[in-house]
User: What shape does this take?
Amino acid sequence: MQFPGTKALDDVDFKLFHNEVHAIVGENGAGKSTLIKVITGVHKPQSGKVFLNKKLVQWSSPIESQKNGISAIYQDPTLFGELSVAENMFITNFPEKNLFNRIDWEKLLAESKRILQDLNILNIINPLSKVKDLSIAQKQLVEIAKAFTINSKIIIMDEPTSSLSANEVKNLFKIIEEIKKRNVSIILISHKTEDIFSLADRVSVYRDSKYIITKKIEEINKDQLISHMVGREIKELYPKKEVNFGKLILEVENLSLKNVFSNISFNIKSGEILGFAGLVGSGRSEIAETIFGVNKPDSGKIKIEGKEVKINSPIDAINLGIGFVSENRMEHGLITNFPIRENIILHKLKYFTKNFIFKSSNAYKTTNEIKDQLKIKTSDVLQLVKFLSGGNQQKVAISKWLDSNAKILVFDEPTKGVDVATKAAIHEFMGELVSRGVSVLMISSELPEILGMSDRVAVVQSGKIKKILNREDATQENIMVEAIS
Amino acid sequence: MNNKIISFLSHRIFVLIAMIIILVIFVSIGAPQFLSERTFHNLLNNLSILAIVSLGQMIVMVTAGIDISVGTAMGLVAMSVGLLIIEYPNMNPIIAILIGMIMGTTMGFVNGLLVVKGKIVALIATLATMNIFRGINVLINNIFYEGQYIGAEKLSTEFKNITRVEILGLPIMIYYVLLIYLIFYFVLHHTRFGRQIYASGSNIDAANTLGINTTKVLIGAYSMCGLMFGIAGVLYLSLYTSAQTDTGLGFEFITITAVIIGGVSVFGGSGILWGVLLGTLFMTIITDSLNILKISPFWKMALNGIMLLSAILINHYIETRKKK
Assistant: This one.
């Protein structure tokens, strides 16, 4: 299997037994998603074979693999917002009546109700709702329900928990346990070791498009797993730097946005990292976006270095020295059809232009330095960003702020969906920023990250800051207590 | 209960009906003859041709595409069928309609091929075919009929009667339209193919990943659009007894506006048939009333542009409000 510039899979082995949950782990760009697409018939391998029940199979399209009982739940949702839940579930295999092949609506509704009931989610998902009106967690469940519209023998789940909150993850685990009892094999792709150790029977590790090892879950621990993934022992996952705080940089007082959050007050000193913990949908991102000028607050004050400021747009925010690394790097952070170089220097083109002429060699040199500094894996900085792996894309998105004069940087889920090594690089970068006196506001759903990186932790719940904990006092337990209660 | 009333009142179909009623009241105050039977029949006839083309346009727009060749394509069908009738004056009208359908579907199929297989942006692909169709129209008109327009005297009574009959006091055209709309309501909302048109328009990557044959679906959508302007071309020739080199000029614009007023998103994936019919009715009333109110036709183009922009802006406004 080859994609422009890189080999996506190279001589890879994978075996799945009856009735097991088999986890596939590896850094981003390790080839996991590609392997799945070969198994389901989205891509065709250039060499090598796929066997199902010891019989050689060659799928010409995903429909064929579905007919043989393989269904996949992809990381990017394959749902259609304008169609109902029931229609989404049966989009490729609608029940039809004989005359004119018309859709059999009664059967469609009855079948989808039965499946949702079987999974015990009929009470939270109405088969007649339009999918665009559902929450992210509900959409994830619809994806799972889809797998049961056919007689699935193998269900593939690609990062099923990546956009779920802790509670929703717990529910999902229950459902997966339930599915296991039905003689179904599950392939689970995940970056979260919690998922793997609570669900998987066996685990296979891939690295740099190659197969590394398969182990029973009892025979391996977290540290060993991580060292197989990165190929080396990682001692220091969170390189927290000792930094002396300076004066107050950002002060937020009683900030409110109707129906979203209310009376938000906090401050950040120079050199400090404030972590924003809480469940997905608690309003963390919206608070950060409001400070960055995306939303207009209904009331409250924002002060920068003691002076009250009005922020009406992201441009105001950038001019005031606020930077923002968005959670959704594809939509907000990157122009994926542009090369790495252009993405890195786009917002400061004027430094690379003389008399209206773009100085490409200067830009090339600067970009290469940044590439080396952040260890962006690529053959050339003129490579288009869309051909990079997720982790490397995130590095490009972050690099924008590397030599900017931002005083405050907001990171929204900076390491969501990226591999361990990229994570470490991003954390190191964050540490460097604060040692230069930058203030960081970091939103994260991963508690270890919050605990490892933050000087203080603000726990957000239902649009309010419940508590701000000092580094010494913050533990997983007391953060979760505040976030859930 | 209250909520139900409010959601019904804010439903697009209701809003469109209300807008049309208000429009009719205003126009008939300005020009009472608007309410005469003759004007009404004219209106229904004009509506019918447009509504058939709008339906085709809608199907393409639901796939997140666009077809700006519809007007000239319809003109080319009208011209070709007209020339054939001059050559074979005794041709059965049914054959004429079938020829129009086959011609239209083929032209739509070509549009689909260019967009899907040729991977040309729909706007550009159909901009090219729009000019090609118009060019062929001028060419065949000059080669076979010395550049004259085809008029009523050249068409047989049977052929003219396809569109001239009245049933229960209403022109037969409106029955054709209702029949076509019912068939396509069924196709779009009650068949797998129809639902996959919506799915492909809503999220084409997801559709591909799931194994929906989007190539087939999209080319199918453009071909159905072709079928519509094919039928409309023959009916146009019969109804207005004329085919010229500029027949169908501006239809792309009016149909796109009607479809958007009817509630179809320019981003694809959503829209209902009956909204499109009402949107077309709205556009027809405006166009017709301009003549009746004796408003200078010089206003027409600017007004059309303003209507299109307003429709898009209103759609955006409704969408963003719904999200909140």
Observations:
- Residues 329 and 394 of chain A are 7 Å apart (CA to CA).
